[in-house]
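Q: Here's a chain of 285 amino acids. Please give me its 3D structure as tokens.
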Amino acid sequence: MGAELDGKSRSGYTMIFVLLACQIGGIFLIATAPIPLKVLALVFSVIVLICWFGLYMVHPNQGKVLQLFGNYKGTDRTPGLRWNNPLYAKRAVSLRVRNFESGRLKVNDANGNPIEIAAVVVWRVVDTYDAVFEVDDYENYVSIQSEAALRNLATTYPYEHDADDERLTLRGHSSAIADKLRTEVQDRLGKAGVEVLEARLSHLAYAQEIAQAMLQRQQASAVLAARKIIVQGAVGMVKDAIEQLASEDVVELDDERKAAMVSNLLVVLCGENNAQPVLNTGSLY
């Protein structure tokens, strides 16, 4: 790959006055000079007229790639009205920060589940030589390679993992996934003279054909997790109750009665509906 060169240019405002003075002088010589000098003055006026085409405007955060008969002569990044060789071909390249949002891609994640995924890539051109001469169309190159990097990322990581799986997931580790996406996109776009400032997922969901099944799975996982917490809390409460009854000599229970009490308390504490107690008005035994 080549490298961007600094394109030297002159102030266009200064050249306007110089060319205007030369143009007026040439017209004056054509009108007043002898015939041999008139021919020279005419040639001089034509050259000055051609030099007017050397004026061009460079906007802020813009570069003008200069070429002479196909040869790269540099990039002019100086904003304002500039002048250079009128034979130079001048191509404008925007250096502003731009966004690219991919469409919703349908791919399979690392577990083989079909998902829909999309991303937003923030980028800008930092090397105009690579952007213009190393790739055919750098804007189209950015869009295609960004989507290719997104597809590759989606197939590398699962949408979500089970409880015993410690891998990165697209859904659970958004910051880490964004960093990896930015790195992969930058690796692909570096040859086009593009710097990737940020890359983040803008859409992530299961594909429609499995969305309902995965929703039921998520709901079941949430119910199991909640039940686990309830059971852990209920066991702790039963333990505390039995220990407190024993320590304060409220009642003395044998193993069979303790088992019955534990069973009853767990039913009361873990049940979804309110318990309907049955009062025993007779002897405990």
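Q: Can you summarize the key feature?
A: The first strand starts at residue 10 and ends at 11.
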